[in-house]
Write a structure and sequence with these properties.
The protein is of the alpha+beta class and 596 residues long. It contains ten helices and 34 strands. The structure holds alpha-D-glucopyranuronic acid.
Length: 596
C-alpha cells in the first residue's frame, strides 16, 4: 500500500517512482496480489444503498501510466510536474460503457480511468462497503489514494469494505481495463462486441457491525422450505419472518451460519402464476428483505419438470447489447426484452454467453419467465491454466451468490462450444460440481459438441450435466438440413436435450422471393424446416432460436451484416420484427395449445 508521511518524502519518492516505473515491466503483479473475490462479496439485494451514479471524470490510459507512475495517489496539490489533471478529464455518466460516451472511444480497448468524489455519511458504529455490479473486464480500485484491490470478470458483482479508509470527502478512482487476453474468461475471440467501462451501478452500502452476508431460500422438495444464512457478527440467532406463510422463526447461529427447514404449504411460483413471498431477516440491527418465488426444478429421464410437471422450454437467446447503450441496461430495457420474448410465446430465455444484469432475473421472477444463466467459458479458453480456472470459479460463485434466490433461474451453464480436450473436461467438470455445491436446487448445463462423423451428440462432459445443450445450424452454416434429422435420431438421451442455438441471418427489410441468403424469407424458411424436425423428435425438450435481437459483432463484416450478427428475429433497434418472428411465434403458440 503506497501512503506518504510528508510532501518532501513524497516528492523525492515521486522522482524515484517517476524513474523507477519506467523500467518495471511487472508493475501489475503487485496490484494482482489483492483480489476482490467472491469471499468478500456482500449481497446487495434487499438492502438500501447509496448509488454513486451520475457524472464521473473519465480518461483513457493506453499505457497504464496511472498504475505504473502512481497517478492514483495524486492529490492535485503536487508542486512538481504531474502528468494528469482529474478536473481536465471528460465528464461521463456512470453507469455506461465508454464506447457510447465519446466517438473516439467507440473501438477503444485498454485502460480507462474513472474518478469521482463523494462525501461520506457514515453513521457511528456502521460498516461501509463499496459494491460494483459490473466493470468490464477488470477493475483496479483506489480510495483516497489507497489501493483497495483488483477484480477480474466483466459480468459479476464485487464488493470491498472501506470503513477504515473513509474520510469526510472521498476520491474514488477506478482503472477499468477491457483488454482481451488468452488467459481471461472469456478469452480473446468472441462473437460479441467487447465493450468497456463501469457499465453497471456502483453503490455505497452501510451495514451494522453484525450483518447478514448471504441468504439462500428455496424449496428442497414440493413440501419443504430450506433457508441457509451466512452471517458476520456476534449474535447467536437470526430472525426469519414471512408473514404470508405464517413464518416467524428464530434460527440459531453456529460458526456464522444458520440453517432451517420448515414445511411449505404455500403456492408455488410458476410461469402462469409467478407468485412470490416477502422474506425479512433480522440479525442484531441488520435487516434485509427479499421477494422470493418458490418452485422446484428437476429432470426425469429426458424431461424437465417444473414443480413436478413436465415442461417444454419455448426459449430464445439474448445478448446484453443495445445500439445506443452497448451493454448498459436499465429496468425498462430489461423489461422490454422480457416482454418481447413473452410476446414471441417464450417461457424461457438463454442469457448468452455471460451473466446479464441482476434486473433480468428480478423482473423474470416478477413476470414469470424461466432463465438459463451462463458463464463466459466460450470457445477457446486456457483450460490448463490454474489461474484461469480460479477466475472462472470465482465468476461462477459471484453469479450464484447474486442470483440463487431468483426462482426464474433454472439452469447454470458452465460454457459454450468448447474443444473436447482433457483439460477442458477437467475444467468444466469442476465448474459443474462447484455449481452443485453452491446450489444443489438447480440444473447444470452447457452447450455441447456434436460428433460430425457419427452425427450424434457426443460429449464426455454430458456425464456431469443435468441438461445437454446442442447448438446446430443445419440449413445455414451447413446447408444439409437432412443431417439434423439423423442427428436427432442418433441422440436420444436419458437426459433432457435442449437446442440451445439454431438460427439464420437476415438483414431487416431485405426481401427476396427466391429466399436468397440474408433475406427475411430465407430466415423464416429456415425456422419452418427446423421446427418440423425439432418438434417431431422425442429427443428435444426445448428450443432456443439464436436469437431475439441483432447484436454487434466485430466478426461480422459482410454487406448485410456491417458489424452486426443479423440472426435476430428482431433487428437491433428492437422495432423491426422480421418474418421469422411470426414463424417462431406460430410454432410456440401451437406447442402451448398442445399443453407441452
Ligand atoms: C455460435 C455461438 C454464438 C454465435 C453463433 C453464430 O454458435 O455460440 O455466440 O453468435 O454461433 O454463429 O451466430
Amino acid at each position: 500500500m503506497l501512503v506518504f508521511s510528508s510532501l518532501q518524502c513524497y516528492t523525492t519518492c515521486m522522482q524515484t517512482i517517476y524513474l523507477s516505473h519506467l523500467h518495471d515491466q511487472a508493475f501489475r503483479a503487485k496490484f494482482h496480489q489483492k483480489q476482490l473475490a467472491c469471499d468478500q462479496l456482500v449481497t446487495l439485494t434487499g438492502r438500501t444503498s447509496i448509488p454513486l451514479e451520475g457524472p464521473w471524470r473519465l480518461c483513457p490510459d493506453q499505457y497504464d501510466t496511472c498504475l505504473r507512475a502512481g497517478w492514483y495517489a495524486y492529490t492535485g496539490k503536487e508542486t512538481t510536474p504531474v502528468d494528469c489533471d482529474f478536473e481536465f478529464w471528460k465528464e461521463v455518466i456512470v453507469p455506461s460503457v465508454w464506447n457510447t460516451e465519446h466517438e473516439p472511444w467507440e473501438y477503444y480497448e485498454g485502460s480507462m480511468l474513472y474518478r469521482t468524489e463523494f462525501a461520506s455519511s457514515q453513521k457511528e458504529g456502521t460498516r461501509t462497503f463499496l459494491v460494483f455490479e459490473g466493470v468490464a473486464n477488470r477493475a483496479y480500485v483506489f480510495l483516497n489514494g489507497i489501493y483497495l484491490g483488483f477484480h477480474e470478470g466483466a459480468s459479476t458483482p464485487f464488493s470491498v469494505e472501506i470503513t477504515a479508509s473513509l474520510q469526510d470527502r472521498n476520491t474514488l478512482l477506478v482503472c477499468a481495463n477491457n483488454t482481451r487476453s488468452v488467459s481471461s474468461v472469456p478469452s480473446e475471440n468472441t462473437d460479441w462486441f467487447n465493450y468497456g467501462g463501469i457499465y453497471r451501478q456502483v453503490h455505497l452500502m452501510q451495514v451494522s457491525p453484525s450483518f447478514i452476508r448471504h441468504w439462500y431460500v428455496r424449496l428442497l422438495d414440493a413440501h419443504t422450505l430450506g433457508i441457509d444464512i451466512e452471517l458476520s457478527g456476534i449474535h447467536d440467532s437470526v430472525q426469519v419472518v414471512c408473514k404470508e406463510l405464517g413464518l416467524s422463526l428464530l434460527v440459531a447461529v453456529h460458526d456464522h451460519k444458520a440453517s432451517v427447514q420448515v414445511p411449505f404449504t404455500g403456492q408455488v411460483w410458476d410461469i402462469e402464476n409467478p407468485k412470490r413471498y416477502t422474506f425479512c431477516l433480522q440479525y442484531g440491527q441488520d435487516r434485509v428483505e427479499d421477494t422470493i418465488g418458490l418452485r422446484t426444478i428437476a429432470c426425469r429421464g429426458n424431461q424437465i419438470l417444473l414443480n413436478d410437471k413436465p415442461i417444454f422450454l419455448r426459449g430464445v437467446c439474448l445478448h446484453e447489447d443495445h445500439p445506443d447503450f452497448g451493454r448498459y441496461v436499465n429496468e425498462n430495457l430489461v423489461r422490454r426484452s422480457l416482454e418481447d420474448a413473452k410476446l414471441l410465446g417464450c417461457n424461457c430465455i438463454r442469457l448468452s454467453h455471460y451473466p446479464h444484469h441482476r434486473y433480468m432475473a428480478e423482473i423474470a421472477d416478477e413476470l414469470g419467465m424461466l432463465l438459463w444463466e451462463e458463464l463466459p467459458v466460450y470457445w477457446a479458453i486456457a483450460f490448463s491454466e490454474p489461474a484461469v480456472l480460479a477466475d472462472a470459479k470465482n465468476q461462477l460463485s459471484e453469479l450464484i451468490l447474486r442470483d440463487r434466490n431468483r426462482c426464474s433461474v433454472i439452469i447454470w451453464s458452465v460454457g459454450n462450444e468448447n474443444p473436447d480436450t482433457d483439460e477442458r473436461l477437467a475444467f468444466m467438470s469442476s465448474l459443474a460440481s462447484l455449481a452443485r455445491s453452491l446450489d444443489p436446487s438447480r440444473l447444470v448445463g452447457a452447450a455441447c459438441l456434436v460428433n460430425e462423423h457419427t452425427l450424434c451428440i457426443e460429449d464426455r462432459l454430458e456425464a456431469c450435466l443435468d441438461v445437454i445443450g446442442l447448438n446446430e445450424y443445419y440449413g445455414w452454416y451447413d446447408p444439409d438440413m437432412g443431417k439434423l434429422k439423423i442427428l436427432l435420431e442418433h441422440s436420444l438421451k436419458d437426459k433432457p436435450v435442449l437446442i440451445t442455438e439454431f438460427g439464420a441471418g437476415a438483414k431487416a427489410g431485405f426481401h427476396d422471393a427466391e429466399a436468397a441468403l440474408f433475406s427475411e424469407e430465407r430466415q423464416a424458411l429456415f425456422y419452418k424446416q427446423q421446427f418440423v424436425l425439432l418438434l417431431g423428435s422425442p429427443t428435444v425438450s426445448g428450443t432456443f432460436p439464436w436469437l431475439l435481437y441483432d447484436f454487434r459483432s466485430p466478426r461480422r463484416m459482410n454487406k448485410y451484416q456491417g458489424g452486426y450478427n443479423r440472426k435476430g428475429l428482431i433487428d437491433q433497434s428492437r422495432r423491426h420484427k422480421k418474418l421469422a418472428y411470426a414463424t417462431v411465434q406460430t410454432e410456440y403458440r401451437r406447442i402451448k395449445e398442445q399443453g407441452r
